[in-house]
UniProtKB/TrEMBL annotation:
It comes from Mucilaginibacter paludis DSM 18603. Residues 82-230 form the SusD-like N-terminal domain. Residues 326-464 form the RagB/SusD domain. CDD domains: SusD. It holds the Pfam family SusD_RagB. Keywords: Cell outer membrane, Membrane, Signal. This is RagB/SusD domain-containing protein. SUPFAM superfamilies: TPR-like (SSF48452). Gene3D superfamilies: 1.25.40.390.
Length: 465
């Protein structure tokens, strides 16, 4: 995959990005006029609501080659799955370094984990800059789109801070001010994320602004805010935001596990249409092997053994192939290998099951043990399992039950397991027992060497100099 540095991206964006955005569209999001111009000025791009929406459409476009939604390449899922105890790797490329904790600052996948979100951030910031104070746009339109872009920006920075720690905090498109920014403290990144989400929750409506659920609504912002507060240990705030989403009446757990990731899923809170030329989601393309082919990414024995007997998630979300008379297991949440599949999958960013688990964890920390158990039992019932046998008398036991349910429900999604192991302080204990090479510095990925060569103000994370 071609990797561009952050600084290079910004230089290119001024001349190329706006033109590119007019050429992409998002399913059911907006109709792009036929024969769009090959290049237009920023003033023309944001001349009215229709031209502005072409730029907005680009922000949500699922495109593994970019530009578009910055997590279309599956790299976040793959690398964090290898770093945690979910996946092992049968190849011999830079990805093996994530599994063995031998990451080097020149690792091309680390460079991609940095570059792709910053390309996405540029797009979101470009829209925010283009609509701010724009007299050609109505106040209500500016408020709506500003809130959406701030949810997108918050998502990028939330993942970046959990992968790298502090990163440059870029909120404009002015290359002169952004090219040589130092790393902001992790606390400053979280403050920006929370500020963006607070704005979004105050200005987004409960209804989705277009067909489907590709563009955030109020509950999308509240879901991410609940997650951020959970990671920050703000239990009551996490509980309240999750509670609002659960009680909205919009979302319902999908009974059939095979339908959870289909386009139009009833539990989807934020779901990007996955429309590409040759394959649908990149996860499906990379995880699901061809006939007689050894999977590139194998589900680890620990992950397989985490599922309780009779758990339908093991049957429906983990695929099996036989190679040399040996069963090999691979992630199978996204099942479409080809874009021509008769079933249409959407790329799930947030779903109701995760909100129940956020609600449960926050409730357990607050001492609401019966609420926590009720939440996870909803998830277990959908998986074909009986209620948890943990009694509601021990906070420690209920917390363990919640985290176990997070492991099995959220496997292979958005780095959930990797982030959980780190934020709970259990990474060292769990991963040392499973793999060799673990060291505390491995909890953060290195700052890409190419970035540091371009910007001398970027410091390196400990253990990678």
């Amino acid at each position: 995959m071609k990797i561009l540095s952050f600084n290079t991206n910004i230089k290119l964006a001024g001349s190329l990005l706006i033109a590119a955005l007019t050429l992409v569209s998002c399913k059911k999001l907006i109709e792009i006029p036929a024969n769009p111009p090959s290049a237009i000025t920023q003033a023309e791009q944001f001349a009215d609501s229709a031209t502005t929406m072409s730029a907005v459409a680009g922000v949500y476009t699922y495109n593994s080659q970019g530009p578009g939604f910055g997590y279309s390449d599956a790299n976040l899922t793959l690398t964090t799955g290898l770093s945690s105890d979910e996946l092992s790797y049968t190849g011999n490329t830079d990805q093996q370094q994530f599994y063995s904790y031998t990451l080097a600052p020149v690792n091309v996948e680390v460079a991609s984990l940095w570059a792709s979100p910053y390309k996405g951030l540029y797009q979101a910031n470009d829209v925010l800059n283009g609509i701010s104070g724009n007299k050609n746009l109505s106040a209500s339109f500016i408020k709506q789109i500003s809130a959406e872009m701030k949810v997108v920006r918050a998502l990028y920075y939330f993942n970046m801070v959990n992968l790298f720690g502090g990163v440059p905090l870029v909120t404009s498109t002015d290359y002169n001010t952004t090219a040589y920014l130092p790393r902001a403290a992790a606390s400053a990144i979280y403050s920006q994320v929370i500020a963006d989400l607070n704005y979004a929750t105050k200005n987004l409506p409960a209804s989705y602004p277009s067909a489907g659920r590709a563009r955030p609504n109020l509950y999308t912002a509240q879901t991410l805010l609940a997650k951020v507060n959970l990671y920050q240990g703000n239990w009551q705030a996490a509980y309240n935001e999750a509670d609002s989403v659960i009680n909205s009446g919009i979302y319902v757990l999908t009974n059939n596990l095979n339908n959870v990731f289909l386009d139009g899923s009833t539990e989807a809170i934020w779901q990007i249409p996955a429309v590409q030329s040759f394959f649908a989601t990149t996860e499906g393309h990379l995880f699901v092997p061809g006939s007689g082919v050894t999977p590139t990414y194998l589900v680890t024995p620990l992950m397989l053994n985490a599922f309780d007997p009779g758990d339908q998630r093991l049957q429906d979300w983990v695929g099996t192939t036989v190679i040399n008379k040996q069963n090999l297991y691979y992630p199978f949440k996204y099942k479409n290998v080809l874009a021509s599949s008769t079933t249409v999958e959407g790329y799930m960013v947030f779903r109701l099951a995760e909100v129940y688990l956020i609600h449960a964890e926050a409730a357990a920390h607050l001492g609401n043990l019966s609420v926590a158990l009720a939440d996870i039992n909803r998830i277990r019932k959908r998986a074909g399992l009986p209620n948890s046998t943990t009694g509601a008398t021990s906070q420690t036991a209920v917390m363990a039950a919640v985290m176990h349910e997070r492991q099995t429900e959220m496997c292979f999604e958005w780095g959930s397991r990797w982030f959980d192991l780190k934020r709970t302080g259990n990474a060292g204990t769990v991963l040392t027992a499973e793999k060799s090479g673990w060291q505390p510095n491995a909890a953060l990925y290195p700052i890409p060497q190419g970035q540091r060569q371009l910007n001398s103000l970027l410091t390196q994370n400990p253990g990678y100099n």
